[in-house]
Each structure stands twice: as structure tokens, then as C-alpha cells.
Amino acid sequence: MRESRLWFWHILSAIVIVFLLGAHMGTMHMNTILNSLGLGSADPVDSVEVFRRSASPVFLVAYIVLLGSALFHGLYGLRSMLFELSLSKSVEKTIGGLCAFAGFALFGYGTYVAIVVYRMHGVQP
Ligand code: HEM
Ligand code: HEM
């Protein structure tokens, strides 16, 4: 029951990643096309641009949701791959605990950074 619930979240997180990572990669790498449509910026990784996006509540929410989805999806996927090695129950428990710890720690740190940068309200060029 617990495994099928986690697997459901794994698939749901993959769907979220398709959309949010698609938008993220589009923002980062399709600036030439976006510029011709009057959207995007000349250099999306220029610090002024990064801070301008980071000051938006929409981007803040998107960063945190993508961060959580990618961490859960990647770490649950890694755990599933390791569980296929027919390890003992105690080793499986340790792997599960380490993945959960890494996920929560990285999610906490990434969320903290996103909120701190959001509250800076951009930088001057
Ligand atoms: C377009 C985005 C993505 C889609 C649609 C997607 C979809 C999937 C699906 C359908 C599975 C198999 C689930 C199952 O039935 O067990 C899977 C497994 C996995 N995914 Fe993703 N994924 C995406 C992005 C990512 C990313 C960004 C990462 C890394 C952070 C990742 C890491 C993994 C891992 C480690 C597995 C387990 C592989 C295995 O069991 O052999 N995926 N993904
Ligand atoms: C070459 C590819 C990539 C580039 C150039 C890139 C660039 C960036 C930049 C500049 C930011 C800061 C925010 C912003 O400017 O909008 C950012 C944030 C972020 N990126 Fe990427 N990225 C890439 C790939 C990825 C991938 C593959 C993932 C996930 C699987 C990802 C997940 C994230 C997340 C979750 C954040 C927000 C992190 C936080 O605020 O704690 N990125 N990225």
C-alpha cells in the first residue's frame, strides 16, 4: 500500500517535471526564439535577469515545486534501483533513511535560498 502510494507520487512528480522543467529549459535555452516574440531576455543567466525572475512570486512557487518534484522523483527512482539488488531489509531501511534525509535536507536548503533571494527584490545592474 505504502509502496503503491509512493509510486503514484513518483509518476505524478514526473508529470510535474515535464511541465516545469520544460518551462525552465525553455527560459534558459530558447532565449533567441523567445526574444523574437518579445518575451524572455538577451542573456537569461545574467545576474540581473536571474534576480529579476527570482523576485517574482510565480517563479518562487515554481522553483520550490520543481525542486521538490525533482528531488522526490530522482531520489525515489534511485532508491527503487538500489532495491532491485535484493539487499537485506536493514540495508534497504538504511538506504530509504539516507534518501529521505538527503531529500529533506536539500529541499530545506533550496527552499531557504529561493526565499532569501526572493526577499532581496532583485539587484541593481
Ligand atoms: C521529463 C521528465 C521525466 C519524466 C517524464 C520521467 C518519467 C519517469 C518514469 C515514467 C519512470 C519509471 C517509473 C516506474 O514505473 O517505476 C522514471 C524513473 C526514474 N526517473 Fe524519471 N522522469 C523524468 C525526469 C527525471 C529526472 C530529472 C530525474 C533525475 C533527477 C529522473 C530520475 C529517475 C530515476 C532515477 C528513475 C528510476 C529508474 C529505474 O527504476 O530504473 N527522472 N522516470
Ligand atoms: C543547462 C541547464 C540549466 C540551466 C542553465 C539552469 C539554470 C538555472 C538558473 C540560472 C537558476 C536560478 C533561477 C533563475 O534564474 O530562474 C536555476 C534554478 C533552478 N533550477 Fe536550473 N538550470 C538548468 C537545469 C536544471 C535541471 C535539469 C533541473 C532539475 C532537474 C533544474 C532545477 C532547478 C531548480 C529546482 C531551481 C530553483 C532552485 C532554488 O531556488 O533552490 N535546473 N536554474
Produce the secondary structure layout.
Elements: H1 2-29, H2 31-36, H3 47-54, H4 57-83, H5 89-119
Helix pairs in contact: 1-4, 4-5
The structure holds protoporphyrin IX containing FE (2 copies).
Residues 10, 14, 17-18, 21, 70, 73-74, 77-78, 80-81 line the site of one protoporphyrin IX containing FE (HEM).
Could you describe the 3D structure shown?
With 125 residues, the protein is mostly helical. The protein has one domain (2-119): Fumarate reductase/succinate dehydrogenase, transmembrane subunit (3 helical TM bundles of succinate and fumarate reductases). It contains five helices and no strands. The protein has helices spanning 2-29, 31-36, 47-54, 57-83, 89-119. α4 (57-83) runs antiparallel to α5 (89-119). It is elongated. The termini are far apart. The model has no long low-confidence stretch (mean pLDDT 93). One protoporphyrin IX containing FE is lined by residues 10, 14, 17-18, 21, 70, 73-74, 77-78, 80-81.
What are the segments in which pLDDT stays under 50 over at least 5 consecutive residues?
A: none
Q: What name does CATH use for the topology?
A: 3 helical TM bundles of succinate and fumarate reductases
**How many DSSP H or I helices?**
5
**What is the annotated CATH architecture?**
Up-down Bundle
Number of discrete domains? 1
**Shape label:** elongated
- Give the helix proportion (percent range): over 70%
Using the coordinates above, name the CATH class: Mainly Alpha
Number of DSSP strand runs: 0
* Rg from Cα: 18 Å
Structural class: mainly alpha
> CATH-wise, what's the superfamily?
Fumarate reductase/succinate dehydrogenase, transmembrane subunit
What is the CA–CA distance across the termini? 53 Å
Give helix and strand order, one letter per element, not per position: HHHHH
Mean pLDDT: 93
Ligand inventory reads: protoporphyrin IX containing FE
Q: Biggest sheet: strands, sense, closure?
A: none
